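Q: Hi! First time doing this. I have a protein sequence and I read that you can turn it into a structure. Is that right? Here it is:
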Amino acid sequence: MIACGMTSVYTFGPTFRAEKSQTRRHLAEFWMFEAESCNFEAMDDLTQVIEKSIKWTLEHLLDKFAEDIHYFHTTFSPEAQAHIQTALKTDFVRFSMHVFTLKWNCHQLCARVCNFVSNNTR
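A: Yes, that's right. Below is the predicted 3D structure, encoded as structure tokens:
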């Protein structure tokens, strides 16, 4: 709603979810980036803005905080720098809500089958 009165609105901040989770991988607290604009005509316009923003942030981190990235790379995650470089060179994957729903349903079905198998093979 705010975006209607402004050209573009971006938010980045902590997000808290209170709903009950069925999985250990569900995050109750995380940081989220949101972009809104009254000028977007298609969802792809929004995803392009978000992709460019994320890539700009990664480039800025590599440029301004190279020493910290190197420390993190050598101390905690040897593949971190390679992942950042890959993200900068690769277009983000986009697919329709229909494809997402199909993939999600397939994922849920596979999780249920695996759970059933593990619970019934003891």
